Amino acid sequence: MTRPDPVFSEPWHAQVFALTVHLNETGHFAWPDWAAAFSKTLAANGLSKELDGGDDYFTAWLQTLEGFLDQAGMTDGAEVAQIKKAWETAYLTTPHGAPVKLPG
Amino acid sequence: MPHDHHDHDHPHALLPPDPALRVKALETVLTRKGLIDPQALDAIIDTYENRIGPRNGADVVVRAWTDSAFKQALLQDATAVVSKLGYYGRQGEHMVVVENTDQTHNMIVCTLCSCYPWPLLGIPPAWYKSDAYRARAVREPRKVLSDFGVSLPEDTAIRVWDSTAEIRYLVLPQRPPGTEDMSRTDLMSLVTRDSMIGTGLARSPDKAGP
Questions:
Q1: Do B45 and A15 touch (CB under 8 A)?
Q2: What average pLDDT does the segment A2-31 reach?
Q3: Contacts of A15 in chain B (CB under 8 A)
Q4: Chain B residue with minimum CA distance to A59
Q5: pLDDT at B63
Q6: What is the DSSP string of A8-39?
Q7: pLDDT in tens, A66-86
Q8: Stretch A18-36: mean pLDDT
Q9: Nearest chain A Cα to B165, which residue?
Q10: What backbone torsions phi and psi does residue B35 show, to the nearest 5 degrees?
């Protein structure tokens, strides 16, 4: 067999995929509900440009998951934005090569 | 401005792209709430990167090629048969295997998103998830096949199966002629991922790669 393509081309593709599968497996939502929401995002995103199935595919996946968790009350948009900002700061203030951690 | 990955003078850690930070934020929030276990995420990634892939599907195909009772059972109730081999759907989906013959060639697609037989083929390739394939597979399957280098006799019908969250399909490709004496391992090397999606055929033994 020839060498297969890498399964995930970016680490975050793998992370968002695993996060979704884990939440499904731990009973937070049913897979058909997820697929229905994801299909809607893909259809909406595909209106403005043709999706190539790479980065844009996982961007749609992430968009769907954010909306899904928010609607289910599992996350709060403002809180997520605040934590994201904290991660950004952590990356920008951690010396190169040292592990990046959130304070506290 | 794109970051230069080879710039060793970076005073700080390289800032991941925006979506990566959004994923990290979700993970952090959910972990703090006790809703997810970060170690479970690593295990899932490991499974899909290293343990699940088209070799599982090839195993099923070669069993079907070499054992007619297995093949009959597989075509009748693929979910039960592949589950017994340990290839069960983590999302609780139903598996259906469709057999290629001289009269009919089968192809699978998911027109709505990217439903795919994960336990047997792993994560789908980017082209399977692209708008182009999802739209064209149904509209002009013969042209799509020719883009993949597959040309079928005019009188071979092409049947396209649209996967859903509940039903995932796997194509059982035709066994190439001249393979009667081949070992299981050698036969498996003929079964490509694309032949199980239906955008390819099983390799001929003289063209089989290492």
A1: yes
A2: 86
A3: 20, 23-24, 27, 41, 45
A4: B19
A5: 98
A6: -SSHHHHHHHHHHHHHHHTTSS-HHHHHHHHH
A7: 999 999 999 999 999 999 999
A8: 93
A9: A32
A10: -90, -20
Quote the percentage of chain A above a pLDDT of 90.
63
| 3-state DSSP assignment of residue B161 | strand
Distances (CA, A) of B92 to B11, B37, B164, B165: 48, 21, 12, 9
| Terminal C-alpha separation, chain B | 43
Burial of A36 (0-12, 13-18, 19+ CB in 10 A): middle
Chain A residues with CB inside 8 Å of B35's CB?
Answer: 23, 26, 28, 74
What are the residues facing B106 on neighbouring strands? B159
The ipTM of this complex is: 0.92
pLDDT at residue B9, rounded to an integer = 60
Chain A positions in Cβ-Cβ contact with residue B132 (cut-off 8 Å): 50, 52
> Is residue B44 within a helix (H) or strand (E), and if so which, with residue range?
helix B38-46
Q: Look at residue B2 in the predicted model and tell me its pLDDT.
A: 46
**Percent of chain B having pLDDT more than 90?**
78
Residue with tokens 């708008």: B131
- The set of catalytic residues of B is 110, 113-115
